[in-house]
Specification:
This protein is 33% helix and 24% strand. By secondary structure, the protein is α/β, with parallel strands linked by helices. It has one domain: Ribonuclease Z/Hydroxyacylglutathione hydrolase-like (Metallo-beta-lactamase, Chain A), CATH 3.60.15.10.
């Protein structure tokens, strides 16, 4: 499986992903907002897009569907609860389902929080020596977490982080739905100002464009992403000092962090 990441030059700084199999010349596209670029990239690689995967129903993740579908005949697949929400869904996905196309093998992870029917996809590598790829949509971002303002729930998001994301190995490569890395690192440092991992990464990406942002693994994320570091004293102090009505239980720290990020 090959992964092609495409950065969309828009205000929302979307990432679109093309997953291709050179053996069968078939491809899967995830959240293809920039349909023209996605179709061009598939053509450059000699791939035919067979499946469109949507992580969730927000317009910046599904607006390219009809164009890709019209040109390629690809089917739209999304969580089964979105079959009447996203137009032309041909297959409703369920938790822990496997998706296979040529050498591409993905597992569906049910990850509510940003929205109630959000799914992520994790690749199943052919060799144990290879890293998995985690296509996280708007659930997990580099150095942050998705918001819950448009159809989501922070308690569901915490459950997704504590039960699903926590189980993924450090070597897992993160492919989020947007590039918010620099802004997120600034927020992370506002919560944990002595975090050298965050400071060094911020220095590295300060002048990079969205298309050149590094691909990080979850082990690296766990060094600076505050939503993956709820036990850290600095983060707990920041949350509890700002919202003294919250306890220091992990789910309350997560809730407070999300509130801090919303108001930052």
């Amino acid at each position: 499986m090959k992964v092609v990441r495409h950065y969309v030059e828009n205000e929302l700084r979307n990432f679109n992903y093309l997953l291709g199999c050179d053996r069968t010349h078939q491809a899967i596209v995830i959240d293809p907002l920039d349909h023209q670029a996605v179709l061009s990239l598939a053509d450059q690689h000699g791939w035919t897009i067979r499946v469109i995967l949507n992580t969730h129903e927000h317009h910046d993740h599904i607006d390219g569907n009809p164009f890709v579908r019209q040109v390629t005949g690809a089917e739209v697949w999304a969580h089964r609860n979105l079959c009447s929400v996203i137009p032309h869904v041909a297959k409703g996905l369920v938790e822990n389902e496997f998706i296979e196309l040529g050498d591409i093998r993905l597992k569906v992870l049910f990850t509510p929080g940003h929205t109630s029917a959000h799914v992520c996809f994790v690749s199943i590598p052919k060799s144990p020596a290879d890293s998995s790829c985690f296509f996280s949509g708007d659930t997990l971002f580099n150095a942050s977490a998705g918001n819950c303002r448009n159809g989501g729930n922070v308690h569901d998001l915490y459950a997704t982080f504590s039960k699903v994301i926590s189980s993924l190995p450090d070597s897992t490569l993160l492919y989020p739905g947007h590039d918010y890395l620099l802004n997120n690192l600034n927020f992370a440092l506002s919560c944990d100002e002595k975090n050298q991992h965050a400071a060094m990464l911020r220095e590295k990406v300060l002048t990079l464009s969205g298309s050149n942002m590094p691909i990080m693994n979850l082990g690296e994320e766990r060094q600076y992403n505050p939503f993956l570091r709820l036990e850290q004293p600095e983060i707990r102090h920041k949350v509890c000092a700002t919202y003294p009505e919250l306890s220091c239980e992990p789910h309350e720290i997560f809730t407070g962090l999300r509130r801090l990020r919303d108001n930052w």
